[in-house]
Design goal:
The chain is an alpha/beta fold. It has helices spanning 8-16, 35-41, 55-67, 71-75, 118-131, 147-162, and strands at 25-28, 47-52, 79-83, 97-103, 132-142, 168-173, 184-190. Bound molecules: S-adenosylmethionine.
Length: 192
């Protein structure tokens, strides 16, 4: 097994994996180069949506899925990769949704100005919460090493603290001894 606490992206996928069954609908809300989308596809959900606002991310994700044997799943609509802002995902997704993955920030190797932002991310998380089934999970990997990411993390943690404990359970995974603002994970599950 990979050493999960050294690789936050692996840890996020590991946390989400037990939620997903063959009947699940799952969303990659920030598909980027497609690595997380591919990992979700390999968990064999009934339906997979992948969103990003950059056409090159959509091309990269589609190519990665196709190269890994998922051409038919794309062609028959089981896997949908779309150039759509995640705050608009409810217009494209049929509920209920079992798992939503957010890997925030900018596309590795891409334009750092095209990054997720506090206001739209909060909107998207709230939208994802409306789509979520009971005992479904939202898993958000946050990067606070850049200004927009700092603001985004603060907004998300403030928001998480306000959630009604009877309806939502949240968890926050930090890496307290790591320097240089390591990635952190916020999890939200619907209790009722
Ligand atoms: C850290 S990258 C994601 C990496 C990706 N999960 C992977 O496995 O390669 C963050 C992505 O979020 C996308 N993004 C930024 N704002 C967005 C928005 N409002 N809706 C959807 N995607 C957005 C960026 O274009 C970028 O590709």
């Amino acid at each position: 097994m990979a050493n999960l606490i050294r690789q936050t992206t692996e840890l996020a996928l590991h946390l989400v994996r037990p939620y997903i069954t063959k009947d699940s609908t799952v969303i990659d809300a920030t598909c980027g180069n497609g690595h997380d989308t591919l990992a979700l596809a390999q968990m064999a959900p009934a339906k997979l949506y992948a969103f990003d606002i950059q056409e090159n991310a959509i091309r990269a994700t589609t190519a990665l899925l196709e190269a890994n044997g998922y051409r038919k799943s794309i062609a028959d609509g089981r896997f949908i990769v779309q150039c759509v802002a995640h705050e608009e995902m409810d217009a494209y997704v049929s509920r209920p949704v079992k798992a939503v993955l957010f890997n925030l920030g900018y596309l590795p190797g891409g334009d750092k100005e095209i990054t997720t932002k506090a206001v739209s991310t909060l909107n998207a998380v709230q939208t994802a919460m409306e789509l979520l089934e009971t005992d479904g999970v939202i898993c958000i990997t946050m990067y606070s090493g850049h200004d927009a990411g700092k603001e985004e993390k603060a907004a998300l943690l403030n928001f998480a603290e306000t959630l009604e404990a009877k309806r939502w359970h949240t968890a926050y995974i930090s890496m307290p001894n790591q320097k240089h603002d390591p990635p952190e994970i916020l999890l939200i599950t619907r209790k009722a």
